Amino acid sequence: MEDTSKNLCKIDDNIYEVPLGYQPGMRVPGRVFVSAALRDMVEPGTVDQVANVATLPGIVKYSMAMPDAHLGYGFPIGGVAAFREEGGIISPGGVGFDINCGVRLLRSDLRAEAVQPRINTLIDALFQAIPSGLGATGRLHATDKQLTEAFVSGARWAVEEGYGFESDLTHCEESGGMAGADPDQVSLKARKRGRPQLGTLGSGNHFLEIQKVEEIYDPAVAQQFGLFQGQITVMIHCGSRGAGHQICTDHLDVLSRAVRKYNIDIPDKQLACAPLGSPEARHYFGGMVCAANYAWANRHIIAHWTREVFEKYFPGSRLDLVYDVAHNVAKIEEHNVDGKRERLYVHRKGATRAFGPSRDEVPAAYRSVGQPVIIPGSMGTSSYVLCGSDAALDLTFGSACHGAGRVMSRSQALKQFTGKNVKAALDKQGIVVKATSPGMLAEEAPQVYKPSGDVVDVVHNLGIATRVARLVPLGVSKG
Amino acid sequence: MIAFEYLEHTADVMFRAYGETAEEMLSNAASALFKAMVDPTTIVAQERWTVELEGDDLEDLAYKWLSEMIFLFETESAVFSTFSMRLVEDSRIKLYAEIGGERIDLSRHAFENEVKAVTRHKFGIKKNQIWCIQVVLDV
């Protein structure tokens, strides 16, 4: 093993270890999956956060960080950790406030040549059709009863209401709705924030993008995913909006007390948690599932309105769901641990599930190859579709990165860029951007992120997920 | 004494807010939260809202106070620029505040960020000569 300046020990190409003893109380070592070049971009604070997670009770194997890892709160962004049902914990610090922030990819039967000349009109129409930005309220006007149904059944509720198709559900993680929702764990405040926002995109790094399939790396798998070169795709990135943020805030309060009640030592207050099996843990999980399901319903409804816009401008065209992945969530999954099958609570915060063909969770349509892993790029840069692999199960509990990962703080970004010059630079590249708050474009400038290709290379080279296609943006609608 | 200052954080917004009194510190923290989103000079305090909260201790109350600001920002579609309050301490600690602001008008309020939540990461209050609160916001 070779010591590095950052106390990261090289184990293998693209695998670095945070050794036991890096911080007091670590129960397992940390593993950071980065290339030598990306390693230098990992801030010391991120390594500390990996080590913090390693101190939590019941953690299995390693506290992990994906190649897009950067400083977060509680877990680092890109953090993955699994906890034993017996003696383990669940923590909102491993999920985040934007529960089930995730990405949905739709494939059209249109070629870029047909769409590109009308890209301005199309982005304008999508911007009108899909409420986004601060203070946006949905076109939906959901009743309280409908809101409860969205919490319990997710995208299935939306299909029953006439949005989208049954086939969307069979092409979505958890079929668009996780089991275990407990709407009693959603406060009135969370309902008040969530009700008007159902069917809204939000702001910040959330977006709806029209893309073109620029490059195919694996023609056989691409065909299985329904992707071809020159094809138009639509990517939707958003989450559970105010509902999820409030559910997390409310339960963090309860879990902060639980830490004292159960005598759990935590190195960061955001890692507040409760022992699995305790009422506090059950309640958080039930509330978290409600937010996750809300997010799937939200992306599903946004996809429906996207289809309506496409139908208007390209009558008879199709927009089928490739897949929809969550990248901020805790899941109950079975994994092999020391030769035994165990039920674990796998936390992925800014990390995507990347299951291979052996897993029952992979939709029937993709069982022969593995699940699509969707990695959005930063604004103006390429996004990638990868294919999950069984190799990931041993290495990362079947997890991959979730995006490019920030390298520059928002305040630095605001010093260096203005929304206006970011937009002008994208215009120059032929990418149309429409945003409710142009000021927010500055802090999402492509330069504030790591190059998404470098992050994807690590995932591919480790065999966690393999490259299938690269998508480039043509038009973006942002909050 | 400066009212508040922002510290470097890669993904989120981190700040420290100060005050001669706990009330002043909490008021400055709320100003820092809104300034992270929108230029406060564009906010006219033309409407008033009242806020009443209670907590186990000052830190618990401070977390609830800032979270309440986000709740009101979202559910009232409003931004705030004046915060006056009174703290009453017995077995628990209570806060009575009147806040001034106005409904969001995107033609005048140019947002640079949207604060999603107040995190508990590195959250803490210290009192030496003056009061100081440190906060990381999820944006």
**Percent helix of chain B:** 10-25%
Q: State the share of residues found in helices of chain A, binned by percent.
A: 25-40%
Q: Average the pLDDT over all residues of chain A and give the rounded result.
A: 94
What is the CATH superfamily classification of the domain at 42-113 in chain B?
Archease domain
**Total strand segments of chain B:** 8
- Mean pLDDT of chain B comes to 95
> Which stretches of chain A of 5+ consecutive residues score pLDDT under 50?
1-5
Which CATH C-level class of chain A is it?
Alpha Beta
Indicate the overall shape of chain B: globular
- Write down how many β-strands of chain A occur, each being a DSSP E stretch of 2 or more residues: 20
Q: Which architecture of the domain at 42-113 in chain B does the CATH hierarchy give at level 2?
A: 3-Layer(bab) Sandwich
Radius of gyration of chain A: 21 Å
What proportion strand of chain B? 35-45%
User: Which oligomeric form is depicted?
Assistant: heterodimer
Query: How many domains make up the coordinates of chain A?
Result: 1
Poorly predicted runs of chain B are none
Describe the structure.
The complex is a heterodimer of chains A (479) and B (139). By secondary structure, chain A is α+β, with helices and mostly antiparallel strands. Chain A is 33% helix and 26% strand. Chain A has one domain: tRNA-splicing ligase RtcB, CATH 3.90.1860. Chain A has helices at residues 36-39, 44-53, 112-115, 119-129, 144-153, 155-160, 166-169, 188-197, 219-224, 241-261, 279-313, 391-396, 410-416, 419-428, 439-442, 452-462, and strands spanning 2-3, 9-12, 15-18, 30-32, 63-73, 75-84, 89-90, 102-111, 207-216, 231-238, 274-275, 319-326, 328-337, 340-349, 352-353, 372-375, 383-388, 399-400, 432-435, 465-478. Chain A starts with a strand and ends with a strand. Chain B has 139 residues and is α+β, with helices and mostly antiparallel strands. Chain B has a domain at 42-113: Archease, Possible Chaperone, Chain: A, domain 1, CATH 3.55.10.10. Chain B contains 2 helices and 8 strands, in the order E-E-H-E-H-E-E-E-E-E. In chain B, the strands form 2 sheets. In chain B, strands 1, 2, 6, 7 and 8 form a 5-stranded antiparallel sheet that branches. In chain B, strands 3-5-4 form a 3-stranded antiparallel sheet.
